[in-house]
Amino acid sequence: MRVRDDGFVPKERYTSPEFLALEMDQMWSRVWQLACREEELSEVGDYVEYTIGDQSILVVKSAPDTITASYNACLHRGTRLGEGRGHFDEGTITCRFHAWCYSLDGRLTHVVDRDDFDEMPEGMCLPGVRVECWGGFVYVNLDPDAEPLLDFLAPLPSLLAPYRMEDMRLRSYLTTVLPANWKVVVDAFNEAYHVQGTHPQILPWTDDTTIEYEQLGKHSHYGRLPNARRVLRPSPRLNLADDDWDEGQILAGMVEGLGGAFLADERAVVQELQDAQLPRGEVLGRYQERRMELLRSRGFDVSGFDVEQMTSADDVYWFPNVVGPVYPGSAILFRVRPNGLDPDSAIKDTWVLEWPRPDEPWTMPEHRTFEDWRDRDWGLITNQDYANMLEVQTGMKARGFTGLRLNPRQESNVLHMHRVIDEYLNP
Ligand code: FES
Ligand SMILES: [Fe+2]
Question: Distance of CA 298 to CAs 13, 198, 315, 360, Å?
């Protein structure tokens, strides 16, 4: 089931329960994975349950500057100690079943009728899980011998430093279940080759042909690399004559289409630039300057950016399972996990992160869950992506289909993911 040297990806990597079991044993048990945001754990005693496959991890703010993680199972008979997100009162984790008690950092502090247990050793603790933070993200790793988080993430922390993700805060948190392997979901957001087939409506304001892909350590990104969206023009696939399009309209389409990444007063700037009838070639630069001024006027530190970065998303893939565009001031991240041990189902979280305005207090948004993705309108582009998932997962089961033939350039990030997975798996 390994990826072939010529890049052919056997389909069993997406469809077989055995392959998911292998991933669980060899990969998910050894990688750093994104458990939660630091702002979800603001008070001592706050906890988040992080699940991966059939494993549940309890992540607890155990002291003002300490986050502790452990397997989420009582030492008595295994009862799960914390579910979802919540708060342990009075610095104590109490098991609901027979009321054994633990300190927030996992030490067993009280056993009811302890004298009945002749042989119980002193100093028992919940089995610990590694936890480290970067960029306001809390990561866990089930492997006690794993490399430090920053080594695992390299070179993303330096690439993303100007975005100051540690200063961002969750603005919305949505979860849904999709009928496909977790990698089908990640892959859908890790290439732009499908734009012409799946999202043709965005071609009038998206030049999808100039997107570049780059692999970075275990990770990758794509966009108009290195930094800039240099021109506003429709996709050359549309064969439009120069008279058929207008830069102001393209800018408006882009800002409208990207929705959440741009704020209401930025749309006003777009309107102003459209009305100004600027010569061709000047609209983008003017907009980038105005956007930088706007962010600065809100008290944001944009000193790490070139003006060209003001309109370019960096679409980042954090191995193994987080993908999404990062903008100056905001980011939309998708975290995708296998749904239990089912190779045909994935849990997808959507996190919108934003630099909070200095003059507005931040509060934790409600975490909303949709058991079926069809229970919500996710916006046209995402609805189109989601509608593909069942078709991909169903089609791959065909006996006449043996594996994926990836585009060597435009799907190179997807192939790279498979090769990194194989580095974790035993042959
Ligand atoms: S299972 Fe937790 S106290 Fe019995
Ligand atoms: Fe898409």
Answer: 47, 37, 25, 11
By alpha-carbon position, which residue is closest to atom 4 of ligand 1? 98
Q: How far is the CA of 61 from the centre of ligand 1 (A)?
A: 22
148 three-state secondary structure: coil
Tell me, in angstroms, the distance from the centre of ligand 2 to residue 188's CA. 6
pLDDT in tens, 106-156: 999 999 999 999 989 999 999 999 999 999 999 999 999 999 999 999 999
74 C-beta closer than 6 A to ligand 1: yes
Please choose from 72, 95, 101 the residue to mutate so as to test ligand 1's pocket, defined by most ligand atoms within 8 A of CB.
95
Q: Is the CB of 419 under 6 A from ligand 1?
A: no
What's the predicted TM-score (pTM) here?
Answer: 0.94
Domain map of the chain by residue range?
33-145
Predicted confidence (pLDDT) per residue in 232-253, tens digit: 889 999 999 888 888 888 888 8
Q: Which atom from ligand 1 is nearest to the alpha carbon of 99?
A: 3
Dihedrals phi, psi of 124, to nearest 5 degrees: -75, 145
Rg, C-alpha atoms of the chain = 24
Q: Which CATH class is domain 33-145?
A: mainly beta
Residue 88 scores a pLDDT above 70: yes
Distance CA 209, CA 193 (A): 9
Q: How far apart are CA 163 and CA 355, in angstroms?
A: 9
139 strand-pairing partners: 34, 132
What 8-state DSSP symbol labels residue 221? E
